[in-house]
# Entry
Amino acid sequence: MISVIAKAKVAKVASIKMSALTTELKNRALKAIAENIWREREKILEANQRDLFAAKSLAAKGRYSEPFVRRLKLDKGKLRNIVDMISSVEALEEPVGKTEYAIELDESLELYRVTSPIGVIGVIFESRPDVLPQIAALCLKSGNATIMKGGSEAKNSIQGLYSVISKATKNAGVPEGWIQLLHDRSEVRELLKLDNFVDLIVPRGSNSFVKYIQSNTKIPVLGHSEGVCHIYVDVKADLKKAVEICYDSKVQYPSVCNAVDALLIHREIAERFLPLVSDRYGKAGVEIRGCKESVKILKNRAKQATANDWGTEYLDLIVAIKIVDSLDEAIDFINAHSSHHTDAIVTEDVNTASRFVRETDSSSVICNASTRFSDGYRYGLGAEVGISTGKIHARGPTGLEGLTIYKYYLIGSGQIVRDYVGTDSKKFTHCRLSKNWNDKMKEMSKRD
Amino acid sequence: MISVIAKAKVAKVASIKMSALTTELKNRALKAIAENIWREREKILEANQRDLFAAKSLAAKGRYSEPFVRRLKLDKGKLRNIVDMISSVEALEEPVGKTEYAIELDESLELYRVTSPIGVIGVIFESRPDVLPQIAALCLKSGNATIMKGGSEAKNSIQGLYSVISKATKNAGVPEGWIQLLHDRSEVRELLKLDNFVDLIVPRGSNSFVKYIQSNTKIPVLGHSEGVCHIYVDVKADLKKAVEICYDSKVQYPSVCNAVDALLIHREIAERFLPLVSDRYGKAGVEIRGCKESVKILKNRAKQATANDWGTEYLDLIVAIKIVDSLDEAIDFINAHSSHHTDAIVTEDVNTASRFVRETDSSSVICNASTRFSDGYRYGLGAEVGISTGKIHARGPTGLEGLTIYKYYLIGSGQIVRDYVGTDSKKFTHCRLSKNWNDKMKEMSKRD
# Structure
């Protein structure tokens, strides 16, 4: 078996060549991946059947839950979605080689800041085998090499998808070794130590899984730990809108990170609002855990919340409710208990809305809409690398941009720093250039 | 004494308020810092004298080096520079509240991605007390709270500068507690554990110091570990330019991170080039450590390099020289031995230049100019937070931008996700908006 470090070295070498691939070649390779996944669909589904068979027998013994087995399952519809997703990545704007900043330092001494791939991306995911083609497509489009490890329960499906992608991209001219697969957990532990070769780790899975990764590596991690989301219903809220938003944010899909966990209700509207929202929730079987005062209003329609309820991600039909005295109290409470993923306000007052969105320290702050909108596809970012609750590099729903960084290119004609130091020295012009890096390249080759 | 966690909590609360400060207030506070530092200059210099006195007696015992003591020293000229630097930060464009992306998801459902401060920045620095006002000014301008710890050898100077800044900003209306000072090393260890309160660590100091910080915290670190810089002199180089560039890159200021450490010389020009460059270096007392073949050419003008020389940051008048066969060999060698800070090529061939800048995996890649240009001031970025050799968030010389991130603001009018799911559902328009967040705020307040 090839060691993890050997794989990482190969990926590093490939990553350098990846950074120079043309848009045409990358798109051709993406097309080939999509075509080959569809052509080999029976083989992939057969491999998936083997994983499912094993998982179901473990589920019968209570080792796996039903939703876990559901996430593992592939079918023609899911493969069609994968193929469509890859085509949508192909259609995205080229993320590499964009000029972000161009400035003349002095005559014939020009600086360009140009977007570039990050290098080698480690991707560790659980259960859902469709993460592999999704992140592979995003890494390829952004010119990054990748080392992937999926859940062992999906090992046949993952090997099948990996083989197809690896072969298709090799034939299309992508440097061999740009995509690498790890097979067991001990290899992940090795990978997390390779900060000289791996530039970014993207973990996709449960909260505890992401936390484990974050605590066990020096490599930067792009991921979200959890989604503890709040809605503050302001004194100036349109209560009809508020009921619908609170309902949708909880009930439309309760087991995901952008579902709401706690409502904060302004005291002055609590008596009117709480019965309305609890009626709506009641029909969907939502359990309400209220603060003392809200329980006084809701009586037997709510349980008493405990200290543990604040700051908890339920991923279930449960919601906590707390009465607050002011916008300030709401903002302070959210900043103290939110996971800084998505928080919302319902209000018709623009000053209140403006203060709330500015002072709430979350990656997505929503006014008068459901928390469930917080997602890369709905935000128009295309396929999603993940949702980041970090505050460095990428925050919130993260598309292709999260897999790129930039480099500075300084093109001179023999300049040295000594000439720019001291009295009577040459002066920097620091004059913004209107041309970009591609223009500069063309200009240089003409001069040749 | 106040505990580190208590200080961090205060800083966190202040950071929320900082994010809503107006440009006017921030600039007024910066002006007040500059004025007060100048007004209190005698007091600050007196405090610095006490540090210097103690440091000199330790230097006499061999505990501190001369350059170390020099970096510690403040005088009127240095204070003037600090005051000028603060004014230049005041003059920079407001980094917070810029709209990076604005898109309509559907009618009256608009998404804005707006730049925001990161939160609480931990700054740990050695020896040079002028780091404190520099980073304080950058944090204030970008709306971040900061917790700082300087070297114990500069404790009186730092306390003096901190008192002036803290008082001046309080009077100008900046939230109290936005700037906090730590006093000893055990407090730094505490700080590095507070990933719930501190969003970014900026270490400024030696290589081993930065590595220590990186290895001892889960908080993201913005810093550079070291600068191992190369120049590749291509077969198509203008040798006259090459000599001047190699000389300036080494001799103009040898003890800094962007000074060159190793030259790679194309075989076909080695016999002509090596005597020229070694003559120039010889006059400045630069020691040359050559590969076998370059020693054959240079004879007693070069020592034999050992394996340890490749990938070493000398910070001194020493340069390693290696003969290579091709551009590919040069790129591979650099990618294997560089610290990915700054590497350069000298060539008149545009295709060679183009491949070199793309495939060299360094934050600054320079063509036909000195490596010493790689610096925030020369790059026109204004005052520098630091130089990052990381590939996430910020890379290379990092200005104010490195202290900001963004937030998503989604402004709706009661929309819920259920309406956008399934067949016959509402469709997202995903249409780019030409207005920005400030326009939207104005529009909303008019409607009121």
About this structure: Chain B has a mean pLDDT of 94. Chain B touches chain A through 85 residues (CB under 8 Å).
